TrEMBL record:
This is peptidyl-tRNA hydrolase. Transmembrane segments: none annotated. GO terms for molecular function: hydrolase activity. It is an enzyme of class 3 (hydrolase). It comes from Streptomyces phaeoluteigriseus. The keyword Signal does not apply.
Amino acid sequence: MRRVSESPFQTEPHPRDEAPQFVLPLVVRLEKADPPGRTDALETAARAVLVLLSDERALGDGEWAQTVRDWQDARIRKVVRRARGAEWRRAGELPGITVTGKAAEVRVFAPVPLDGWPKELAKLQVSGTDLDDPQEPSAADPGVPVLWMSPEVEMSAGKAMAQAGHGAQLAWWELSDEERSAWREAGFPLAVRTARPERWRELTASGLPLVRDAGFTEIAPGSCTVVAEHPALRSR
């Protein structure tokens, strides 16, 4: 099982940079009249990454397995694009998995080469995806894994969705097979919340999985963006 110490989110040069580079496409449905809340979108994107990683097609000899392995052997890039109307319907015709939240819908696809996006996805907009919460999210339910977002780094909703996905993936790597199965069978419950500054300092020093962004877009390389607090990891 891959360990966080081997995380490809670190910014230092690494042999993985010489491997073919892939990206995990995520598409969020963003209709003009009824966009989802920001936290709902972040949580749904994180769950979509976990659903993809645990799907039979991504494991063993599954049809996506080799591509997923190649992606995880390089930098773990995720790109979130937005679609509405006919764009969303066309995206839904491609092989992938649609994950729904309270109102959010996110479709995740098997990794693709950086320069090999399907044309239906390549034309979708990536920049400027932003969302708001209609009200401040309530405290996470006790015992639910929490992906803590940094209070110090400003990100668009699209960038934050990708970072939440990174945090979920780091937690997934750290869990045992039994812990992964239990999380999957429960439907991958999780919460995304922004930590208060004093809490953030505690979290980043806790030894829990920590995302340090590679700095490809929006934010500076090495920025700490997410800490993944899964109960099974807290108890170790």
